[in-house]
Amino acid sequence: MPISANISKLDVAKRELEYSIRLFFSYGDIVVIHLISSASYSIFRGLGKTVGITSAREELYKSVKKGKVKYVQKKLDEAYNFLKHAHHDPNKLLKFYPESSEFIIWDSINIYQNLTKEITGLMMSFRLWFYLKYSEILLKTEEKEYFKEAGNQIDINNRNLFLKAAEMFENKRTLGTL
Question: Is 44 exposed, middle or buried (0-12, 13-18, 19+ CB in 10 A)?
Fold first, then answer.
């Protein structure tokens, strides 16, 4: 095992994102999933900003009244900040919504793909799961229509199936057939 290694922020964020997806599909701890996916998301958003790539969150801010943007930011970051800071309100309880992690992972995948022009098998599999679960609230896209067709045969509650699909997607990606 190496004593030290050079690692980029992009690689760190990618590893965190993929690990959070594995935990998600393995029904891992919802708090850990949120913490890891939020850490990854924070890096991706920062990297995206440096090259003009905006997140879904930044697009949302554009539709919020100027005087209310900080309020919305605080609400969106509330769970992540609660999980990483003990010195603010140490006895406070948080009403946590695990589904928020799903949207963080989805937005992270979109930023990663825009930054790198690639998508990994785990990311593709999560995107499939996400589009199947949230097909009624997302705008129609060619990719969504493709996934919707697959959804007629897939049980989104069988997350183990999505881990297997991730492996299949990754094999096809590395062979250049995806």
Answer: buried
Instruction: Note whether 47 and 9 are within 8 A (CB).
Output: yes
CB distance 17 to 105 below 8 Å = yes
Looking at the fold, whether 25 and 48 belong to one and the same domain comes out as: yes
Residues 69 and 126 in one domain: no
Range of the domain at 128: 120-178
List pLDDT tens digits, range 31-59. Answer: 999 999 999 999 999 999 999 999 989 88
Nearest alpha-carbon partner for 19 in 7, 8, 35, 6: 35
Residues 69, 142: one domain? no
* Residue 117 pLDDT level (bands cut at 50, 70, 90): very high
Residue recorded with tokens 């919504």? 97
